[in-house]
Amino acid sequence: MIDASTAVDLCRQTLISTVIIAAPMLLVGMAAGLAIGLLQALTQVQDQTVSFVPKIFAMAAIMVACMPWMLNRMVEFTRMMFENAGSP
Q: Which regions span the lipid bilayer (predicted)?
């Protein structure tokens, strides 16, 4: 049985790892949304699909590009969790 401080530390590490793994996709989605929004404001095109499709493609591209790093990070985190699960 783990004590409360260990459980809180594991939850904190889980949240930090989640944010770090999701950050590239979120940042690219935000940058693409900002760029598309700026282009829409400059050209006065107000179609919702114009902003949605490029963001999806940009986020999919960065996900494919970062997939090896993301998987490595998740495997290392899982390994660390299993190693810490057995220790008192």
A: 15-40, 52-71
In a domain, 84, yes or no: no
- Phi/psi region, residue 3 (left: phi>0; alpha: psi -120 to 50; beta: rest), is beta
Contact 12, 43 (CB under 8 A): no
Q: Are 25 and 62 in contact (CB under 8 A)?
A: yes
What is residue 39's three-state secondary structure? helix
Domain annotation covers residue 85: no
Q: Does pTM surpass 0.85?
A: no
Query: Tokens representing 63?
Result: 């996900």
HSE on the CB side for 5, CA within 13 Å?
1
pLDDT exceeds cutoff 90 at 76: yes
**Does 86 have pLDDT greater than 70?**
no
Only one residue has tokens 């889980």, namely 14
Look at the chain and report how many structural domains it folds into: 1
Length of the chain, please? 88
